[in-house]
Amino acid sequence: MTLLHEKSKCCAARIVRFGGKRRQCTACKKTWRVYPSKRGPKPSRKQPNYLSNVFNHSFAVKQLAQHSALTEAAIYKRFSKNLNALISGKRIIRIRGSKLILLIDAEWQYFKGELWTMYFLAVKPVGATKVVILDPILIKGRESFTGWNIAINSLPTGIKKRVIAIISDGIKGIETISANNVWLLQKCHFHLISMLQKMRGKRLSTPGRLVRDEIYCSVKIALTTSSVCKLNFLRKRLAILAENKLCPVRMRGAVRGFLKRFSEFRTYLSYPSLKLPTTVNVMESNNSFVRKKSRTVNTPKSWYKWAVACARFKSKFTCK
């Protein structure tokens, strides 16, 4: 069999060894390295304390330059490099417990006239007081059923199989998502009460103030009472109040939606052993932390990087 040896690219002549890793063209005597090294100086050692100071100790990136011999531009460059290394690294999530509860919420923001939505997810073992924030999912467009399907399907298989319940506010299509995955659904009390509180009005002279107050108080009692007789009475009373002419249109719609999905607000009472959270306020705390850290971003890519870094540096929140 005839052996075909590689020829030099410069003269197509025979190649000979010229030291350990170098080769030489026998025609023009040009030499080169077999495995060329990267040009320029080697990268300096990474500074993980930059990220820790920003995400754990509430420093701004500009403040890091005040206590360093480096310029502000150099600090920003190193911080960006460390941030990219953190995002590109693989995250290993270990959560104990055979049964998990999933909490979800979303944030949206405009960039150059285009709407982007960040989908946040967190899991909590049954009986635990800490939730683990997972890496968020960024999708272009409004918060939607399709977006939530993509976000939930991105959950690691080992986590998704153990989820038995989902906690959410009144997002569209959440009932279908919970039914498709055979999960219990607990809707957020805080969002409902907060919405009714805004509709009550601040002045005593507000038209229908007595009707609005009664609806607000009745809903609060209906969310927590364990008396079946009182519960049935409140449901009938709310149905009557919703038809009152002094009841605002938006409040009427909120009451009808509450009565239609009544059991989904009281899942925590039907399954007391699971100790289901009744609000997604822990997700609001996480969203507030992300907004605070990423308030100066101006691109979706930067927003995603900062949100992922927030989830990895402050991955646990208290949820009672």
CATH topology of the largest domain: Nucleotidyltransferase, domain 5
Number of domains: 3
Shape: elongated
User: Which structural class do you get from the secondary structure elements?
Assistant: alpha+beta
What characterizes the major β-sheet? 7 strands, mixed
Number of helices: 13
Distance between the termini: 76 Å
Overview of this structure, please?
The structure is a single chain. The chain has 320 residues and is of the alpha+beta class. The chain has three domains: 48-88; 96-187 and 279-320, Nucleotidyltransferase, domain 5, CATH 3.30.420; 189-269, no CATH class. It has helices spanning 48-55, 61-66, 72-88, 145-153, 157-160, 174-180, 189-200, 209-224, 228-242, 249-260, 267-270, 281-293, 300-313, and strands at residues 15-17, 22-25, 31-33, 100-111, 114-125, 130-133, 137-140, 163-168, 184-187, 316-318. Strands 4, 5, 6, 7, 8, 9 and 10 form a seven-stranded mixed beta sheet that branches. A three-stranded antiparallel beta sheet has the order 1-2-3, with no helix packed on it. Helix 6 (174-180) links the parallel strand 8 and strand 9. Helix 8 (209-224) packs antiparallel against helix 9 (228-242). The longest helix is centred in the first third of the chain and has 17 residues, at 72-88. The model has no long low-confidence stretch (mean pLDDT 89).
